[in-house]
From TrEMBL:
Gene Ontology MF annotations: CoA-transferase activity
UniProt-listed InterPro entries: CoA-transferase_III_domain, CoA-Trfase_fam_III, CoA-Trfase_III_dom3_sf, CoA-Trfase_III_dom_1_sf
Organism (species): Bordetella genomosp. 7
Xref: Pfam families: CoA_transf_3
Keywords: Transferase
Top-level lineage group: Bacteria
Protein name according to UniProt: Carnitine dehydratase
Length: 421
């Protein structure tokens, strides 16, 4: 039996989250909450979270590795929210919940009779209700479906990614979904802080559209100031030089030289005395204006250098430089040891943040489909008989008989448990 008090002493211990979300942004948000101590109950539809099937590769438990990357530390149940009989089950779960997260198409919860403003807020006034969607509910695009790559295209991210020869290119990770998960978590935590003063929950929203536009730093600011549309520059920076990848003898490195002091140290170390004395490269604005000639001079000096040795030397001098690693190489770095989670039945990426007094830790292995249904519902006050009837009714996996027999049991459970306010 799960006991939230024994989960771990993270900063969010005691917080209860009902997670109706699936795929990436919502599940990532709730996994981060779980990693920091929250009791997260993942409520899946009868066919499960689609991400369970997005493989190969598949983990030892049969789920796609993709699913495991955003669903550790949760308990899983299944519930068919399209059936009215499921509403009382959800209400039972929400009696002592702090947060509900969903990423259905806007209007879906209202269509199911679970609207926040008219149904959930009056019944659970302390609930923080987080909705995640592509475009939100209102505005010209309100209610439309949104996917990471589509938003990368629509919001200009692809237009600044890639080379002139490649044309607009999708960023190789679902960066919009990922940051939307963080944006949603931030909104939830701000609402929790505000609730400590007012005693009231509220609806919070994160959209892929707004998140994608917020990623355009500094490109949007450059355009607003200059009127010139940003263009594809490969790995180069529109405002800084040299800030790009360069070829060495055995691979590529990335130089991130931000100021004249770092540039001077770099040139001295590589013997580029003529470059350092050249007025074309005296300051960042000059280097930007002559970046192509500067690249030729730098790559000539790097041609015989080992990338690992050179990066180590430059970093010791305070000049930011790093080898361009593959994903396996990235995790093989000794410094990455704390970010790789390896245990029986699970391998994953660790927590990116660190709290020193109340540290988080990677939650338990990702749950199997409906793995904790009986446990969670019993804790919510449902009897074994009621749970059996829910399965027979189709509200839980099972047959499709009427669920009238359990409504009174659910209502009694709702009335008898403490309500979060």
């Amino acid at each position: 039996m799960f006991d939230a008090s024994e989960h771990h002493g993270g900063a969010l211990a005691g917080l209860k989250v009902i997670d109706l979300s699936r795929v990436l942004a919502g599940p990532l948000c709730t996994q981060m909450l779980a990693d920091n101590g929250a009791d997260v109950i993942k409520v899946e539809p009868p066919l499960g979270d689609e991400t369970r099937t997005l493989g190969p590769p598949f983990a030892d438990d049969g789920n796609a590795a993709y699913f495991g990357s955003v669903n550790r530390g949760k308990r899983a149940i299944t519930l068919d929210l399209t059936q009215p009989g499921a509403h009382d089950v959800l209400f039972a779960l929400l009696q002592d919940a702090d947060v509900l997260v969903e990423n259905f198409l806007p209007g879906t919860m209202r269509r199911w009779g679970l609207d926040y403003d008219t149904i959930l807020a009056p019944r659970f006034p302390g609930l923080v209700y987080c909705t995640i969607s592509g475009f939100g509910e209102d505005g010209p695009l309100g209610g439309l479906p949104g996917y990471d790559a589509i938003l990368q295209a629509m919001c200009g991210l692809m237009s600044i990614n890639g080379e002139n020869t490649s044309g607009p290119t999708r960023i190789g990770i679902p960066i919009v979904d990922h940051l939307t998960g963080y944006t949603a978590m931030t909104a939830i935590l701000m609402a929790i802080v505000e609730r400590s003063r007012s005693g009231r929950g509220q609806r919070v929203e994160a959209t892929l559209f707004n998140t994608a536009l917020s990623l355009l730093v500094p490109h949007a600011a450059n355009w607003l100031a200059s009127g010139q549309a940003p263009r594809q520059m490969g790995s180069a920076h529109p405002n800084i030089a040299p800030y790009d990848k360069f070829n060495c003898r055995d691979g590529q490195i990335f130089l991130g030289i931000l100021n004249d002091r770092q540039f001077g140290r770099f040139c001295e170390h590589l013997g580029l005395h003529d470059v350092l004395a050249d007025p074309r490269y005296a300051h960042n604005a000059d280097r930007l204006a002559h970046r192509d000639a500067l690249r030729v001079a730098i790559e000539a000096a790097l041609a015989g250098r080992s990338r690992q040795t050179l990066c180590k030397e430059l970093m010791a001098l305070g000049v930011p430089a790093g080898p361009v690693n593959s994903v396996p190489e990235a995790f093989e770095q000794p410094h990455a040891a704390g970010m790789l989670v390896q245990r029986d039945g699970y391998r994953g990426v660790g927590l990116p943040n660190r709290l020193y007094r109340t540290p988080g830790q990677p939650g338990g292995n990702p749950p199997g489909f409906a793995q904790h249904t009986d446990e969670v519902l019993q804790q919510a006050g449902l009897s074994a008989v009621a749970i059996a009837h829910l399965r027979e009714s189709g509200v839980l996996p099972g047959s499709t008989q009427s669920c009238d027999a359990v409504v009174s049991d659910l209502q009694q459970a709702n009335n008898s448990t403490g309500r979060r306010s």
